[in-house]
Structure formats: C-alpha cells, structure tokens
C-alpha cells in the first residue's frame, strides 16, 4: 500500500508538472503567433507580399503549436474535470480560434499580397483604384466568411471559473475577432459593389 501511495503521488506530481509546462509553452506560442500576425499586417500595409507570407506562415506555425499543446491527453483530461478544468477548456478553444484565424484569414490575405495594400488600392490623389479593388474581392469575400465563422466560435468560448489571465485573454480575443470580422465584411462589401457603382464596367 505504501509503494502504491508513493507511486500515485509521483504520477500526480508528474501530471501537474506536465500541465504547468504545457500551459507555459502554449502561452508562449500564442503570444508569438500574435506577434507574427502583427508583422504580417505591417507587411501587407506596406505592400511587401513576401514578408507577409513569411510572417503569416510563422504565425500559423505557432498557432498550430498552441492548438496541439492544448489538445494532448493530460490537457484533455484536465479540461474534463468539473470547475477545475474550466480554464483548460477555455484555453483550448482560444488556441483553436487563433489557429483557425491564422490558417483561414491571415494566410489567404498574405497570399493576396500587394493587392490588399493601400498603395495598390489608392492613387496618389487619394481616389480608389477600382481594378485592384475588384481583383481583391474574391480573397476579401472568402476571408470575411471565414472570419465570421471564427467570430461565432470565439463568442462561444466559455468564461473560465477562475484565472483572470485566461478570462482577460478570452475577452480580448472576442473583441479583436469581432472588430476584424466587421472590418473584413465592410471591405468585402465595398470590393463587391463599389467598382460597378463607380463605373468600372462603363456607363
């Protein structure tokens, strides 16, 4: 009985230690993915498609790592524990949403490259370049639809029973994804209807 108790204690300590390591690694991966997402946005704004693709790929790689870390067996077991597992489940869903956004929104936007940059869409006089806007319409439509799907997933992430850092991360993600979804929807709508309304197809 003594040996069984000691073995059980070792297993419990190892389990908790592994969860702690995984939590730190997942947090680092999510933060790194966020940094690369910002780099992607900056590259797109200056029309550097190659840099945008590189940064978007890195963002997706780290987001995938976070999603993988938060779906391993110990994490899944911890998530299933009533109340105590709540922050683990919330983190799993946060990582899932971030990975979905990098793969279905960020990478396609980066692949469009310079088409989505302000320099391509605006002339020196500040007027909208209609042809590049129409060219960007399919990418904007697909990323807008993807963002809407992931926004719904983000809003459905449950509030953790404890750990304010996870609760804050959840709220921040929900707000950011909603803002992104609204921006992409508006831009996609403009790309769809503006060229025709402003005479690109002739009178």
What is the number of helical segments per DSSP (H or I, 4+ residues)? 7
Secondary structure class reads mainly alpha
Weakly predicted, low-confidence segments? 2-8
Beta-strand content estimate: under 5%
What does this structure look like?
With 203 residues, this protein is an all-alpha fold. The protein contains seven helices and no strands. The chain has helices at residues 2-45, 49-69, 73-79, 86-112, 118-121, 130-155, 164-197. Helix 1 (2-45) runs parallel beside helix 4 and helix 4 (86-112) packs antiparallel against helix 6. It is elongated and about 65 Å long. The model is unreliable at 2-8 (pLDDT under 50).
Keywords:
203 residues, mainly alpha, 7 helices
List the helices and strands and how they pair.
Elements: H1 2-45, H2 49-69, H3 73-79, H4 86-112, H5 118-121, H6 130-155, H7 164-197
Helix pairs in contact: 1-2, 1-4, 2-4, 3-4, 4-6, 4-7, 6-7
Gist?
With 203 residues, the protein is mostly helical. It is 80% helix and 0% strand.
């Amino acid at each position: 009985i003594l040996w069984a108790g000691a073995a059980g204690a070792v297993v419990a300590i190892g389990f908790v230690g592994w969860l702690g390591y995984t939590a730190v690694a997942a947090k680092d991966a999510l933060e790194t993915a966020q940094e690369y997402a910002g780099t992607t946005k900056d590259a797109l704004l200056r029309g550097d498609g190659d840099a945008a693709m590189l940064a978007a790929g890195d963002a997706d790689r780290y987001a995938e790592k976070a999603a993988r870390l938060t779906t391993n067996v110990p994490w899944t077991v911890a998530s299933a524990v009533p109340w105590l597992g709540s922050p683990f489940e919330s983190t799993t869903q946060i990582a899932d949403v971030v990975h979905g956004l990098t793969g279905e929104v960020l990478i396609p936007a980066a692949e469009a490259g310079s088409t989505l940059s302000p320099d391509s869409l605006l002339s020196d006089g500040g007027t909208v370049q209609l042809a590049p806007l129409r060219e960007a319409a399919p990418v904007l439509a697909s990323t807008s639809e993807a963002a809407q799907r992931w926004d719904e997933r983000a809003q459905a992430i449950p509030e953790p029973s404890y750990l304010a850092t996870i609760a804050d991360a959840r709220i921040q993600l929900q707000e950011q994804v909603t803002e992104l979804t609204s921006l992409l929807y508006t831009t996609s709508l403009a790309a769809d209807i503006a060229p025709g309304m402003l005479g690109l197809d002739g009178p």
